[in-house]
């Protein structure tokens, strides 16, 4: 593997939305941004302020560390936000707050059993550091008028839709954030899909897992970096604006064009110009639902076109056939249960192999190098980009860029926290970034729900 390159760094004060779109969004280039979204207050997201600021009292799904890292979506437990924060304050480094999903495969964490690691588990299409949009659960068609919002059921539907955007425990930010914070000006050309909170604590005694008798040397997602935890190498189906709050994050990046050399769990079918990667639906991704270049589910697009377009009979039959084929997948998933495989968007390369230079023991490093050469030889064709981001900085990462995220605490406070925004990526390289108005209409409905909830909260 070649030595790491660098990416560009820009000041938030030196770029506007148009120049950022031209140089980074349309060129599908990641960059580090010095400065923050206007009005974003880091202090409000600090550990000691978070509970009062978010005012969130429902249960959260919190992931347990597994095999030295996070991102598999397994080992989740139910915790109230206040209880989770207390565990972090008291030194618990086994838990990590990620994107929230439906309450399946979740254990009770009312006692201190949350630090227990268990074996492989749930099948998640994407559940990892900046890899967490649940493709199955993006908005169903939903329209709400202000008059209808007087009905409690419609209000609940509006709240559910907003909660898809402002992921738990950020949901109540609709009361506090302006639209300028929900849809930052720098990326105003793109449609927001989710805003998430990531939170955990570094283990200063963490170590590299190693067992020569186990597959892949038993490395799991452990790292040779002291105090670090890993997300695993993976890619996402949305553009991302990532904002560290505390601690620091090391991103090891590869462009989408490197995916064929990175031993993905799934078999790649298409890499779109946007960077979005679609997979073959087979034994390696049995419940995969196909996506188009802007990250939208092919099934949802077909339903939307059937409802909104004036179609002839042949067009209707074609779209109905698409819906039927994709719906079968969900039915099979419901009857077959979960898979023990990682999502197709994950690499099978243990993240420790990306950081061999940090392995101190020569014999261990030699065996890891042998594993790399024999099991993952194509990795040497790739040149990683390594980036460190810390509070006061942001990272823009286009869809499809593969990344392994190593999380570190700093100083005496070992808690690492971040907020990230997901955006539907552009599917055409022009000032009109979407080929149709699917995403813009979708966000119009979300905006309507935001206004309704805001008005009802006053």
Which secondary structure elements does this structure contain, and how are they paired or packed?
Blueprint: E1 9-11, H1 17-25, E2 31-34, H2 50-54, E3 59-64, E4 76-80, H3 81-89, E5 95-97, E6 106-108, H4 152-165, H5 179-182, E7 192-201, E8 229-230, E9 239-246, E10 248-254, E11 268-271, E12 277-279, H6 298-308, H7 313-336, H8 362-375, E13 385-389, E14 393-397, E15 402-408, E16 415-423, H9 438-457
Parallel strand pairs: 1-2, 4-6
Antiparallel strand pairs: 2-14, 3-4, 3-5, 5-7, 7-16, 8-15, 9-14, 9-16, 10-13, 10-15, 11-12
InterPro entries: Cupin_8, JmjC_dom
Region (Disordered): 106-126
Protein name: JmjC domain-containing protein
The stretches of 5 or more residues where confidence is low (pLDDT under 50) are 103-132, 135-144
CA-CA gap between termini: 57 Å
What name does the CATH topology carry?
Answer: Jelly Rolls
How do the strands of the widest beta sheet line up side by side?
A: 1-2-14-9-16-7-5-3-4-6
Mean pLDDT: 86
Number of domains: 1
Counting copies of identical and different chains, the oligomeric state is single chain
CATH superfamily: Jelly Rolls
Report on this model:
The chain has 458 residues and is of the alpha+beta class. It has a single domain (9-457), classed as Jelly Rolls, CATH 2.60.120. The protein has helices at residues 17-25, 50-54, 81-89, 152-165, 179-182, 298-308, 313-336, 362-375, 438-457, and strands at 9-11, 31-34, 59-64, 76-80, 95-97, 106-108, 192-201, 229-230, 239-246, 248-254, 268-271, 277-279, 385-389, 393-397, 402-408, 415-423. The strands form 3 sheets. It has a 10-stranded mixed beta sheet, with helices on one face. It has a 4-stranded antiparallel beta sheet with strand order 8-15-10-13, with no helix packed on it. A two-stranded antiparallel sheet has the order 11-12. Helix 4 packs across helix 9 and helix 6 runs antiparallel to helix 7 (313-336). The protein is globular and about 65 Å long. The protein starts with 8 loop residues before the first strand and ends with a helix.
